[in-house]
Amino acid sequence: MSIEEELKTRSGSKCELCQSSQNLSVFEVAPSDESSEQSIYICATCKEQIENPSMMDETHFNCLNESMWSEVPAVVVISYRLLKLLGREDLVDMIYMEDDVKAWADAGVNSSSNVVVKDSNGVTLNAGDSVVIIKDLEVKGAGFTAKRGTMVKNISIPQDVEGHIEGRVNGTKIYLKTEFLKKA
């Protein structure tokens, strides 16, 4: 039986992330030994967004709330990586993995340790930290103002935007300039 046939049977001919039944193919979860245990069966939409993180649509990946609980380690690993990439540390913290699966998942996560981001007081910020906004900030395009004193928890450090952090304010994921933040 080929890997694709095994995955088709395992997944019930549906994307193992979003449950779509359209344009399905095999996706190897690197580092992989090219086996069905280290591959998943996903749709073209999921595959395109995984391969091109700049095109990632967070609303499409609401499906990770379900797939992160899969009994298939490869599905859990890719769910973990995507949730980390989306800055959803709240969900990442809920995922249970055996030590070897956790090591596999972490092996594919891009580390932001080479980017040093500091708050307005010069204190180094790390992914997962909490910060406090020190000035009212109008959020363009979202129609609200992020008020001074607002706590932003579980921040992420974007690789592509220097001097900014990414976090959720009023349930909206936004970029914030570090000059208007202090570590909590």
TrEMBL record:
Residues 6-51 form the PhnA protein N-terminal proteobacterial domain. It holds the Pfam family YjdM. It comes from the Bacteria. This is PhnA protein. It comes from Sulfurimonas denitrificans (strain ATCC 33889 / DSM 1251) (Thiomicrospira denitrificans (strain ATCC 33889 / DSM 1251)).
